Amino acid sequence: LFLLLLLAFIVTTSVQGLPFLYDRDYLIIFNALLLVILCISLFSLIDQNQFKKTPFLRLTNISLMTATVVVDLMALYAISFRLVEYGFSLNRFYVLTINILILGHLMYLLFTYVNSIQRGQGAREMTDAVVNYLPVYAVWITLATFILPVVFLFK
Question: For the whole model, what pTM was predicted?
Answer without folding.
Answer: 0.84
